[in-house]
Protein: Mevalonate kinase
Organism: Methanolobus mangrovi
Amino acid sequence: MITCSAPGKVYLFGEHAVVYGESAICCAVELRTTVHVNKAEEVIIESVLGSTGLDFEIHPYVSHAIEKMRQFTDIEGVAIKVESELPVGSGLGSSAAVTIATIQALNYLYKCGLSLEDIAKTGHEIEKMVQGNASPTDTYVSTMGGVVMIPQRKKLQHLKCPIIIGNTNKFSSTKELVGSVAKLRSEFPSIIDPILANIGQMSILAEKYVNESDYRTIGRLMNVNHGLLDSIGVGSTELSALVYAARHSGAISAKITGAGGGGCMVALAEDDNAISIAKAIEEAGGEAIITKNTEEGVRLE
């Protein structure tokens, strides 16, 4: 049996804008999806969603990963078991993590010899198949770990402050939210294009502050980024409640992370107030997770 795991991620800057070629800064976090693979007589995929064969409805990412890897090797039967610390549809890159961990596990099991760049590229192709229009950010960060600027693929300074994730426990569809932004953009390009460009510009401006570990300035920019995301319709009542609860309890910053519409928000904290911020998020109706940046991307366990 081969076991591989890959991390989830939070966006510091750039979600939605990155779909249109703008820059984003993304941060791998110490919440991982683990995939166990073994050769078998048939295809069996097990997860919290159930046990299936090749199934593009229930297990679309794992099923597409198997199909994609058949381009590199002869895969007839394989048993795959998925375990994850990442809630599905929460904006934490759960689909990228399961895709990347599956590809790497199959890569090891069948000795395909794929590089990390190959794995990130293949993972992005799979996300595009499932989601329609997916950015390369999630799959690249899940593969490489650390803090990464996309599309430049530039590694930035590791974040040393606590990261608090607030989960609304409200499922959000990345495909639907990306589609709603695309519709808004097609109707009001002169309004929406500058907003997306400003979100991208914020990432470029923030690169310097990330590398200098200037969390106060990073936080101010993250808060502005949240407002711009709200303006293009990807906020929600639940997310706003968690964001403002975190800010009012002393967070350096708090914003939507990922597609929005539900899912999660992210806050940066000082070393001494992470617990009180997490408590404020829970009192506002969310589920709080205190985590941190990880330098490790996909790995063989």
